[in-house]
Amino acid sequence: MLTQNGSDLFFAPIAGYSDSGLRSLCFRYGAGLCFTEMVSAKGLYYKNENTASLLYVAPDESNTAVQLFGSEPEIFAEVVRYPVLSKFSHIDVNMGCPVRKITSNNEGSALLRNPELIYKIVKAVKDSSGKTVSVKMRTGIDGKSCVTECALAAQEGGVDLVTVHGRTKEQLYGGKCDFETIAHVKQTLRVPVCGNGDVTDRDSYLRMKETGVDYVMIARGALGKPYVFSEILGKEYTYERNEAILFHIGRLCEYLSENTVMNVMKKQIACYLHGSRGAKQLKEQAFSAHSLKELTTLFDIKNN
Ligand SMILES: Cc1cc2nc3c(=O)[nH]c(=O)nc-3n(C[C@H](O)[C@H](O)[C@H](O)COP(=O)(O)O)c2cc1C
Questions:
Q1: For burial by CB atoms within 10 Å, which of 15, 153, 189, 274 has the most?
Q2: Cα of 268 to ligand 1 centre, how many Å?
Q3: Tens digits of pLDDT across the chain (304 residues)
Q4: Of 173, 176, 178, 223, which is best to mutate to test ligand 1, by the most ligand atoms within 8 angstroms of its C-beta?
Q5: pTM metric for this prediction
Q6: Which CATH topology does 9-233 take?
Q7: What is the fold of 241-303?
Q8: Please, what sign has the CA dihedral across residues 83, 88, 89, 93?
Q9: 3-class DSSP state for residue 255?
Q10: 148 lines ligand 1 (CB under 6 A)
Q11: What is the per-residue DSSP string for 18-84?
């Protein structure tokens, strides 16, 4: 079992969103494993300053994995031994990012063109780190799926878990999730498989479980809704939106500058407010706040 609390639900790596604050809330409501957003292996190697804040993990995060992206086995082998990664017992490698800036460097979903390189990267990360290693893949690049071959290469390299997002690179985040291919990967592999794509509630979770996957990963369905894990697990819970927002702000203040907290939180707040009464006005006020004090006052429980 890759989770300590018995939960088969993961909170996904989401660039700009999977920060320590949201991860802690996801754990609170029942996620079994959370991921950092993708972090550049080269950025770590060349000591890029921006990568440090992505690696912040709070003591109440029970089981957080770091996700790395890159394409060079030698660089992966080197960076996974860095002390800055010692707090992570689990390393995930991104093999799904469709963004051109990433794929043009042969990183992210571009790796799906090269099963041999997948094997080498996984082997390098596993041998060098000795940690739990997973990969997160899309079903393919374009029309036809190649994920099974890629997943087998990762398994050969020693991977402990394969996550499959049921879309090709070309599909980006639209179109339908391909459950058949996810089921095929599950039937083919020896190692556990996690299914990802369009899970937002218990019904969509059960649909994903029909593929036979061992774990289910949720991304967009948890933005502004960390309690989605309790809903799916059928666990009783209490949720107070403003408390969650203030908790989230407080956590980010532990490791980010006021300006960065404001920028990150405005996006997160838009998710927290989505669909709620009076959201439009409150969102406008939040977006025009000039200081953190002004922003927090909007959500201060005493004022509401
Ligand atoms: C804004 C955004 C950023 C993302 N960043 C990452 C990332 O850093 N690493 C990754 O593996 N996937 C990333 N993803 C993909 C998600 O983890 C997930 O695979 C995808 O959204 C499908 O799951 P969902 O239908 O539950 O949202 C990102 C998705 C979105 C929408």
A1: 153
A2: 15
A3: 799 899 999 999 999 999 999 999 999 999 999 999 999 999 999 999 889 999 999 999 989 999 999 999 999 999 999 999 999 999 999 999 999 999 999 999 999 999 999 999 999 999 999 999 999 999 999 988 899 999 999 999 999 999 999 999 999 999 999 999 999 999 999 999 999 999 999 999 999 999 999 999 999 999 999 999 999 999 999 999 999 999 999 999 999 999 999 999 999 999 999 999 999 999 999 999 999 999 999 999 665 5
A4: 173
A5: 0.98
A6: TIM Barrel (3.20.20)
A7: 1.10.1200
A8: negative
A9: coil
A10: no
A11: --HHHHHHHHHTT-SEEEEEEEEHHHHHTT-GGGGGGG---TT--SEEEEEE-S-HHHHHHHTTSGG
Question: What residues are labeled active site?
Answer: 97
Rounded to the nearest whole angstrom, what is the distance from the C-alpha of residue 12 to the centroid of ligand 1? Answer: 7
Would you state the structure tokens that stand for residue 32, as one six-digit string? Answer: 């079994």
Pocket test for ligand 1, best of 10, 165, 204, 205 (most atoms within 8 A of CB): 165
Q: Is 219 in the pocket of ligand 1 (CB under 6 A)?
A: yes
